Amino acid sequence: MKKQLFHTGWTISRQPGKSMVEAMMSSEEEKEPIVLPYDAMIHEAVAKDTKNAGQTGYYPGKMYYYTKEFEAPQDWEDKLVQLEFEGSYGKTLIYLNGDYVGEQKYGYTNFYVTLNDSLNYGGNNHLEVVVNNEQEKNSRWYSGSGLYRNVQMYVANEVYVPADGVRIQTPEVSGDEAVVDVQIELNNRGLKKHAVKVEVTISNQNGGMEAKRVCPVTLFADGTEHIEQRLVIQNPKLWSVEEPNLYQCKIQILDGNKVWDEAEDTFGIRTLRLNPYSGLCVNGEPVKLRGACIHHDHGIIGAAELRDAETRKIKKLKEAGFNCIRMAHHPAGKTLLEVCDREGMLVMDEFSDMWTRTKNANDFANDFHENWEQIIEAMVAKDYNHPSVILYGMGNEIQEAGTAKGAQTGRKIHQKIKSLDPARYTTNAVNGIFACGDRFMEVVGQSMQQLGIPIPDMQQAARDGQQSSEQQSSAQGGSDALNSMMSVMVGPLADAIALHPIMTEMTEEFMETMDVAGYNYLTGRHAKEHELYPHRVVLGTETFPGDIANLWKTVQENTHVIGDMTWTGYDYLGEAGIGIFHYDGGVNFQAMYPERAAYIGDLDILGNRRPISYYREIIYGLRKTPYIGVERVNRYGKNIGQTPWMWKDNIASWTWNGYEGKTAVIDVLSDADEVELFLNGVSKGRKAAGKANDYMAVFQITYEPGELKAVAVRDGKACESFALNTAGKAEKLSIDTDRTTMEANGQDLAYVMIGLQDEAGNQNLWEEKEIAVQIEGAGSLAGFGSAEPSCERSYFDTVCKTYDGYVMAVIRAGLELGTTTLTVSAEGLEPLTISIEEI
User: Fold this and answer.
1) Which end of the chain is more exposed for a tag (fewer CB within 10 A), N or C?
2) Whether residues 409 and 481 fall in one domain
3) What is the rounded CA–CA span in Å between residue 164 and residue 185?
4) Distance separating alpha carbons of residues 140 and 478, to the nearest angstrom
5) CATH number where 190 lies
6) In the chain, what are the helix, strand and coil shares in percent, each to the nearest 5?
7) What is the pLDDT of residues 793-833, one digit of tens each?
8) Cα(705)–Cα(707) distance, rounded to whole angstroms?
9) In Å, how far are 626, 653, 661, 760, 805 from 725, measured between CA atoms?
10) Taking the mean position of all CA atoms in its chain, how far away is CA 584?
């Protein structure tokens, strides 16, 4: 099938409270021209009274009407015409020339609609897509709204390969050769048979042909044939995280000199092996998953799945030391998977956040029984040819986990996935609190008694957690009561809870429904699992970020533990405030307007790395140079609200104007056995660090401006060093852009980081200034903002105050050739201008 991006010429209108008929009759003035992908939610004003509350960062969901006019050539009468929606958030109905042609209820899966019955051939056609996201409280995180992923147009001849009709495996791989198994679906829509030849050609990423095979096939009238071709590639270049080599498979259906159809797809040659003694092996080599859970939004530009946004996110995660992402908690988009293939990032793709029991009143549990098989089929078809995908997540913190019916559902989902893709593995992110259900307090009480902890204290904590949740008037949903309870899941008590016999009893059947036992916040079970279940493989599917030293030690010391997935690698919108440090009596997991972001990522929503990111990189063994995090000097001594998801409120800055002579707490992060700290050349002492001390030494000194330097000491000798320097007054702006040219395709993005510098060029993270941007030319502003997790402003405002020294503007390419000019200004500073050519 010929495939074309169907992204221009669209309009959107917002018609809350109107009927479909009224909305469809909206005036031209109410219709805004747009280019897809387009996340409608990020364009809404945050609203204190939205039922979504902090779950979506106070962004409301509404009803949206997307329309597009297009011509259908006369010769399409003999062709199959379909649209693919790669993702549409909200319950979606599609109409062509007034006729219903399809729908979708799950906002994260791709789906196809056939247009032929309603097309006006040789004339104009009116396409309407109605996306209803008004049923608020349907997501526990920022979902986005509307057509936030690509829409593709497919046109096929009488004989064709359908979309997702090519499946590629590499079942036999050695150093000298690889067998590539290509399975092809062939359709004949006509009323007579056709004798055709199917030509399969495999090329390397430089375009050189590696293998070719031709197969004769007779396609009978109105029928479908499935063929399988095995080709051999000599001296294959394998796909891996370090070397993500890709191949191209091209298929042609030939009838003499006539080409009925062509299909192309990329794939990688790699093998997977899994057992508790070797762990996870990729191409025969053991691999530990250095994993990051991520949501699908891109911070200040919302959830629009644009290739450059996905590429930037994956590159930054990989630079930070991660080699695997967990898509939390829904199927990944096609564009993201293509980027992971190209960049070398392993993927755990995930089915859903819930099954038959709701977490929000209007979530997917209401449609689970009717739709789960179709969604699994779509997810596997989407993922099948992507070498990056190694695991299918069947669910997240499923409430049925401790029940026989839950285990039965797990077996059905596992068997469904395996029937479609036997080469990959399944897991399920199990939360012990859900699994134990109403027996959890029994587990906690007995565990506390075992450790000599007063039980009434825990009972009061449980009541406080429940009361906290009730006080929110259900604004955040039942997940907040869960999160309050999970505050006990750290330290010795957490280990005792994880290993309690009731926990083992309640999870046993459910864990047998998957290939890899996935545990959320049950680290205490990881090492002991091999004693209890020698054939079980374990993955920390979700873990507290600050516990990485303990977690990674467990991963390294146990072959049956294949990795760890931190919550979370990249900050995101929604679940607002779970990582915000409160010094004013504020409480996490409550709906506190106008909190917008979770503020929990190793990287903030602009993509800047926080100290914990370097800490994790050191623990992974990927960084030798020490790093310094300074706990905010202006917050020293203040009471702090904190949860287990939060690590330290520190930044890499030694500029604290007005706090001279005050106490400063310095975190020196290093794998060296010792580190020495110097302030303006004077030693402030030497302390133990390294593995035995969780890779960190903490110093308490008096703040004075100058140079703060940490030196790694190995075998008594000074080695690698890292320094922070006090910045002077902000005297100028700095601009760092990731590109100076874009294609005029409406899809490309340019990321422009804007900061404050002193006269010597040092970044000043302390001062705050209002930064204004002005954009002219072919492109448009796709988002402008800071990493500030709590604000009311729109990301489309043209003025924003710096937060920790930075703001960022994202420019989206237009559809015409030309120059886009961005002018940046701030009071008292010289404006700066950059130009980006659209070619």
Assistant:
1) C
2) yes
3) 9
4) 10
5) 2.60.40.10
6) 25, 40, 40
7) 999 999 999 999 999 999 999 999 999 999 999 999 999 99
8) 7
9) 15, 8, 17, 11, 14
10) 31
